[in-house]
Amino acid sequence: MQLTRTNAMIQDELTHSSRETRQDTRGRALTYLSIGLVVVLVVAIIYFIAARGVATFTTNHVTLSEFFGINWQPTATDSNGRPEVGALPMMVTSFSVTILAALVATPFALSVAMFMTDIAERRGAKLLQAVIELLVGIPSVVYGFIGLAVVVPFLRRLAGGTGFGILAGTIVLCVMVLPTVTSLAAASIRAVPLSLRQASYAMGATRWQTLRKVVLRAATPGIITAIILGMARAFGEALAVQMVIGNTTVLPRGLFTPTSTLTSTLTTEMGNTVPGTLQNNVLWSLALILLAMSLVFNLLVRLVGRKGALPS
Amino acid sequence: MMNAKQSDRLATVVIYTLVGVVIATLVFLLGYILFQGVPHISWRFLTTASSNMTAGGGIRDQLFNSLYLLVLTTIISVPIALGAGIYLSEYAPHNAVTSFVRSAIEVLSSLPSIVVGLFGYLVFALKFNLGFSVLTGAIALTVFNLPILTRNIEESLEDVPNLQREAGLSLGLSRWRTTTKIVLPTAIPGILTGIILSAGRVFGEAAALIYTAGQSNINVSYTDWNPFNASSFLNPMRPAETLAVHIWQLNTEGVTPDAKAISAGASAVLIIVILLVNLGARGLGGLVYRRLTGKQAKGAA
Questions:
Q1: Are residues B119 and A28, on separate chains, in Cβ contact within 8 Å?
Q2: What pLDDT score does B295 carry?
């Protein structure tokens, strides 16, 4: 170690950044690069899909009312020579299966969540929790396969017809989103402070009164978030639904007639069209709707979060 | 009108019934896959090529493709997610830009996987001319994997107590050094668990792959180790149907006579791998933690 330093060395030390600073700058640059890449990716996804999706309207001059029509036959034209690209049947089916799945799944999810947090003893709750977490990880094609092998034949025997349709899609989606909704709802119910429960019991409330009027009330924002995220997953699910919905693009007439969702049409038809044609562009418009709905679900979660954060 | 006690009893019965239905469904689901599928799993099933027209096909190529895609995806996504996670936990200032970045990641994580797949198809398969290939598939899966992995790494880093950072900085280490040499090693068990759990998701993903990695296979040679040869099994430019895509394919457009048996077997393989991955993640996380923190298991010293 040198104790005396020359002027040059001191000058160098004072006018240049230290080794540590240079190291930090390099490291920082690496992290900026990574996060930049992620942001560019998100922007690129939105840009490319939006650019392709609006081509139907700008390049092919399809009007919005035609796009929201009920006849989907992109290779054909109607009596006025206009392309038949009415996407309403798919939107109706997509929203139907999503809402129905959420409606059916919610009571089950809430019961299991309350059972895990407030009713079962610790060991049973832990076991149930582990199974639920395992089910979150089951691939959607497996749900679709079981839907096709078990649910569709069952409905066929029950109601006649083919068995494919909204009800089959609802059942498959319901089982698929149940674990997600349950574990998120359980987390928010568990987060309700014990003191609230104790206060309620101390005033002589029964367990159900406590759960319904105190615990569920306090956990409402979290529960709503869980349901919205479940709906987002159901709305965007492609293959499991495609396998059981029947893939006939007509307005659904009931729970048992074959129909198709936005995702199932995209899955089956994207490979059969030539890029740049109307038939292809209109599929990208469907993808744009999916993207937009995903943003809407995101926004809803945010709004609920903000509302829930307010002191009440 | 019911009194409070009666309605409490009724509610309890209803809750128990609903929970019972859910448990029965879960047991049926797992039981169905395992009982229908496991009898079909044999060494021959795992090591025979699939066949479209005749019965008796296996899942050799699909199984390999799934694993290969998983490895490639992990190699591409872990460094990027590490960088992004470190940025968010160690460097990000509390301002509008950071909250924009966070919302972008949230949007990415909630995108339907079919949309991610179509983006990969449009940009990488068509625009960059990579076609239906292992590489395109790995990029699509990376997009799908990044937000979850980034958030997991960020959370694992944030769990490290600030005292550790203060100790590093007060010794004169740069922020970067402190992060890579002190904070990151402490967070490794959590990060590793996250990587393994995301591997399970990647392994079962299909919607993002049908238009990126493709729905077909070419004949590959498993003895050709040169990834630049067109017929090598390591060639990243070949189309590759994965196990999950194969299950979907068999059940929608397939003309394979024993489609149901093969799907059941393949589903069981998929579930078993994911089960092992989940158990492995829990076990490995704890093991690495003990190693890194020097807290040896009993008798190991």
A1: no
A2: 57
Q: How confident is the model at residue B72 (pLDDT cuts 50, 70, 90)?
A: very high
| Closest CA relative to residue A140, chosen from B150, B21, B247, B235 | B247
Note the ipTM here. Answer: 0.89
Domain boundaries, chain A: 86-270
For residue B254, being part of any structural domain is answered with yes
- Of A64-68, B2-6, B250-254, which gets the smallest average pLDDT? B250-254
Contact A179, A133 (CB under 8 A): yes
**B253: in domain:** yes
Give the gap in angstroms from C-alpha A188 to the nearest C-alpha of chain B.
Answer: 18
Q: Which residues, 6+ apart, have CB-to-CB distance to B5 below 8 Å?
A: A206
- Tell me the residue range of the domain where B114 lies: 41-293
Structure confidence by residue, pLDDT tens digits, A47-97: 999 999 999 899 888 888 888 888 888 887 777 778 888 899 999 999 999
Give me the residue from B80, B119, B251 closest to A45, CB to CB.
Answer: B119
CATH number at residue B135: 1.10.3720.10
Instruction: Show the DSSP H helices in chain B as ranges.
Output: 4-37, 43-47, 60-86, 96-110, 113-120, 134-158, 162-170, 175-177, 184-204, 243-252, 259-293
Query: Class for domain A86-270, per CATH?
Result: mainly alpha
Distance between CA atoms of residues A63 and B24, nearest Å: 50
Q: What is the pTM of this model?
A: 0.90
For residue A275, give the nearest of B100, B126, B267 by CB distance. Answer: B126
Identify the closest residue of chain A to B275 by CA–CA distance: A134
What is the number of domains present in chain B? 1
Q: Tell me how far apart the alpha carbons of residues A271 and B83 are, in angstroms, rounded to a whole number.
A: 36
Please report, as a single letter, which amino acid is at residue A95: F
Strand partners, B152: none
pLDDT at A149 over 60: yes
Contact A140 B207 (CB under 8 A): yes
Q: Is residue B115 part of a domain?
A: yes
